[in-house]
């Protein structure tokens, strides 16, 4: 459940958007995205520390960014008995600044590492995953 909350908050924090994204030079964040993987990058040298693929339940999660500045999420979680349960539908306000590559979801700002027509990478957490005293980046990778 903690992972799902971190993921939902991270996505919410990263998934902000504005009309600036819709110019021809930038891919648009607008649309429905699904989880591809979560990657942890070393804060010292950017090496990949870990990659986690979504389980069958997490694969059902969707993140729909609208052109009206709303992020609609549909999330699921795996219960202790191994079954997949609906965690609910949630709506957040968001904005995305393509110039600074920052997304703000419900007032929480996050970095967008990449945005293409088919992939979105958002920093959903910064903490010392490997115990070296340097914060590492936890990045949610979404696809459409």
Architecture overview:
This protein has 144 residues and is mostly beta strands. It has a single domain (2-143), classed as Lipocalin. 9% of the residues lie in helices and 50% in strands. It contains 1 helix and 9 strands. An 8-stranded antiparallel β-barrel has the order 1-3-4-5-6-7-8-9. It is globular. The model is unreliable at 1-9 and 11-24 (pLDDT under 50). Residues 29-122 form the Lipocalin-like domain.
Give the helix/strand layout.
Blueprint: H1 2-14, E1 31-41, E2 48-52, E3 62-65, E4 70-78, E5 84-97, E6 102-105, E7 108-115, E8 119-127, E9 136-143
Antiparallel strand pairs: 1-2, 1-3, 1-9, 3-4, 4-5, 5-6, 6-7, 7-8, 8-9
Could you write a compact summary of the structure shown?
The protein is mainly beta and 144 residues long.
Structural class: mainly beta
Secondary structure tally, helices: 1
Tally the beta strands: 9
Main sheet attributes: strand count, strand direction, barrel closure: 8 strands, antiparallel, barrel
CATH architecture call: Beta Barrel
Q: What's the SSE pattern? A: HEEEEEEEEE
Q: How far apart are the termini?
A: 24 Å
Mean pLDDT: 87
Shape: globular
Strand order of the largest sheet: 1-3-4-5-6-7-8-9
Look up the CATH topology.
Answer: Lipocalin
Tell me, what is the CATH class? Answer: Mainly Beta
Mind telling me the C-alpha Rg?
15 Å
| Number of structurally distinct domains | 1
Give the helix level as a range of percent. under 10%
Oligomer: single chain
Stretches with pLDDT under 50, minimum 5 residues: 1-9, 11-24
Protein name: Lipocalin family protein
InterPro entries: Lipocalin-like
Domain Lipocalin-like: 29-122
